[in-house]
Amino acid sequence: MSHSGYHPVLDPALAAPFPEAVLPVLRNPQLRKNVAHAIDVIQVKRGKLVAEKTDWQALRTAGAAIREHALENLGAYLTQFEERCTAAGGVVHWAADAAEARQIILKLLREENASEVIKIKTMTSAEIQLNPFLEAAGVRTYETDLAEIILQLGEDEPSHIVVPALHVNRSQVREIFARRMGLKDLSDDPHALTAAARNYLRRKFLEIPTAISGANFLVAETGSVVVVESEGNGRMCLTLPRTMITLAGIEKVLPRFQDLEVMLQVLARSATGERMNPYTSVWTGVTPGDGPQKFHVVLLDNGRSSILAKKTERQTLRCIRCAACMNGCPVYRQTGGHAYGSVYPGPIGAILTPQLMQMHHAQSLPYASSLCGACYEVCPVKINIPEVLLELRSQVVNQERGHAGRFFDPMYLGLRIANMIFSRAWLFHTAQFFGRVGLKFFTRKDGWIHSLPSVGSKWTQTRDLRGLPKQTFHGWWAARQKEAR
Amino acid sequence: MNAPPTSRERILDRVRGATQFVAKGTGQLAGAYGELPRGYVRKGRLSEGERLALMILRLREYDAEVAECAPEELPAAIAAQLGASGMHKFVAPAETPSAWLAEGFDWKQDRGLTSAEIEEAEGVVTGSFCGIAESGTIVLHHTAMEGRRVLTLLPDWHLCVLRASQVVETLPEYFARCEQAPRLATYISGPSATADIEMTRIKGVHGPRFLHVILVRDGGQ
Hints:
The complex is a heterodimer of chains A (485) and B (221).
Chain A: H1 18-21, H2 23-26, H3 29-51, H4 56-72, H5 74-87, E1 90-95, H6 98-111, E2 116-119, H7 123-127, H8 130-136, E3 140-143, H9 146-153, H10 170-181, H11 190-207, E4 210-213, E5 217-219, E6 224-229, H12 233-239, E7 243-249, E8 253-254, H13 260-272, E9 279-284, E10 294-300, H14 304-308, H15 324-327, H16 330-335, H17 346-356, H18 374-378, H19 385-402, H20 410-422, H21 425-440, E11 448-449, H22 457-460, E12 465-466, H23 473-484
Helix pairs in contact in A: 3-13, 4-13, 10-11, 17-19
Chain B: H1 7-18, H2 26-34, H3 48-61, E1 65-69, H4 74-85, E2 89-92, E3 106-109, H5 115-120, E4 123-126, E5 130-132, E6 137-140, E7 157-163, E8 167-168, H6 171-177, E9 184-188, E10 193-194, E11 202-203, E12 210-216
Parallel strand pairs in B: 1-12, 2-3, 2-4, 4-7, 5-8, 7-12
Antiparallel strand pairs in B: 5-6, 6-9, 10-11
């Protein structure tokens, strides 16, 4: 965060590994307090509203099944979406990767002679790093979601996918707004801060004729796009401009309009602890006389189709970006989002980011979890995140142990020796014997080892180790059998 | 030489390869879709009175103002709300019944108003397609009774007429009422709000800050 002198890096190709990236956060008590406060508020609200739904588990089951069905038949549903959206006056573009999506969007903006563009919060645009690209190409981008304004004006990065500025508190927001909007006398009352954002954006909504949005859902049956929001900035961007460009991952498609009856119920409750978010907009291509008269959809692959091909990992793409997994995660609660080095933090980020990077970057993320399973329990579309984490961990190990340079790495060396010992009974018994004899010197009277020399000290520096028992289970069993005879 | 594959072809090939795509007929796809589990609550269980009471409760929880009236009292109820607002400049959709356009106010009906003209209005009066009691949601399909999207967006004050017969209990019941998917729809659950600063709920960011609902007791369904 800029206030404390370091800038978070959310490009997985450049970010430090999680254990390193987390250090500035752990040393920042203000940030940790802000994150914990926000998470606690959401969790209480979510808990209450999920508890009142007697059919919550049935909704999760239906949500998971609809998303899985859409993915299994993604080719059919994508072409159906394209056909219906085109018939309704939209133009569909396909982008194989981030660079292609950026070029398509820039080309569309050039055709509009756009030097400025207003944006609805979209994590997909952050994924392809659209804003810095457009700014470099001479197009000014105006984020319009309150949290995104805070981050854009504060030159900060999102740390959460639903409440991206939850790590910033009111006095920090006041400082940013006062400085960047030239409002010296601004108070730190959230009402005043919100009003400042309203005034800052009002003219821009009315005057800037080009807008960029993401999509919460694409509906194959109708070719419609769905955006879910709270503030009305989304409705402004969807209604007032001449030209609308929607960037959406290819996995966002739902088979039918009616499927929203499940998805909207689970999304609002999971994301913000509301029965329904204040505003949901559905639109289909172009409607004469109502809203933008030019409409483009950019369908983005960027690694998604390769996730789709893998049996265990495919479920990652069911995600509807509600953030319930990060709100429920004991690791995220301590670290916030920046340590994940990606616009997608938390448990879903820990599985999504390395996969979007084709396992070339962010290999530390599958380890940023205690595998407690809280994320799976709250996920409204039943993504078994721990299962995918384990699968990715095994891929990371398989990649690493192939490296020639890792041959004498103490961990891999140790594991190879352990493998040899554990697969031969006589070696195992011999090792147990020497272990007992060797560790005896270090075991205190209370049965615990409090300090070990050399490599062993890495363990005992922070925790004690139980001494080995006098008798092994095998020994005890053999003695017992003998007695019985 | 064949032209190199477009991104569209490349993506679709990869997607189909990834899902062992077999050229399923639409019938087969529909069959698989039809078998998806739907064990959640679709039909509500409340009586009509309870359903309307829940709708009113939810709206009030969002700080929306709710008034009730009989069908023949509607024009008077609208006039009373307008009067109490202290405002004068109002807009209304093209096909608003003339009885709703109370006298003594400055009305502009939307027959192609510009955004600037709508921005000048202080309030807007519209009909609605549906109300969902469980979540206190007002559904607009943006017909000529409900107004174009911009009409219910720029004015700071929105008075919405909802008939008791339009109120359903659950979200699935709304979808069951859509004989055809709407081309445009907005679901409004309380006035515009944000909780982006320290999770403190602030009413009124960019959309209307004030939502008023007149519930017309038209004898239910």
